[in-house]
Amino acid sequence: MAGEPQDDCLFCKIVAGSIPATIVRETETTIAFRDINPQAPTHVLVIPKEHHRDAAALAAAAPQVAADVLRETQAVADEDKLESYRIVFNTGSGAGQTVWHAHAHVLGGRGLEWPPG
Ligand code: AMP
Ligand code: ZN
């Protein structure tokens, strides 16, 4: 069923606490933790606790939770005192998605080129 934890999902395991992560924020519907392979001084992943395969699936199935994820990206940026930051939702393997549980990358603390690579 949409939103149910998946046994083979790394981020569902982080939500469940069975895999450790450096959690920086938690709400009723979301968690935010530092990326294990940071690409910027601030590189935090904000995820819904519910399992959805990507951002669009999350928005379709649970729009309020999608809004919660977006609100939390700002909270992460505020905690790290970022004036500017980038939110990235890699969607599909061609765009670099490797974990099939919706997640927002929050990147900041260095210059961010546009357009991105
Ligand atoms: P994506 O490539 O957009 O699917 O993003 C997945 C992200 O998860 C990558 O930036 C990885 O570095 C990160 N990642 C993978 N395993 C872990 C982990 N155990 N804890 C924190 N971040 C992770
Ligand atoms: Zn999951």
Description:
By secondary structure, this protein is an alpha+beta fold. 26% of the residues lie in helices and 21% in strands. The chain has a single domain, classed as 2-Layer Sandwich (HIT family, subunit A), CATH 3.30.428. The chain has helices at residues 10-16, 55-61, 63-79, and strands at 23-26, 30-34, 42-48, 86-88, 104-108. Strands 1-2-3-5-4 form a 5-stranded antiparallel beta sheet, with helices on one face. It is globular. The N and C termini lie far apart (35 Å). 26% of the residues are buried. The model has no long low-confidence stretch (mean pLDDT 97). The structure holds adenosine monophosphate (AMP) and zinc ion. Adenosine monophosphate (AMP) binds at residues 10, 19, 21, 33, 35-37, 45, 90, 96-99. This is Histidine triad nucleotide-binding protein.
Relative strand content: 15-25%
Strand order of the largest sheet: 1-2-3-5-4
Structural class: alpha+beta
Label the overall shape: globular
What can be said about this structure in brief?
With 117 residues, the chain is α+β, with helices and mostly antiparallel strands.
Search tags:
117 residues; alpha+beta; HIT family, subunit A; five-stranded antiparallel sheet; 5 strands; 26% helix; binds adenosine monophosphate; binds zinc ion
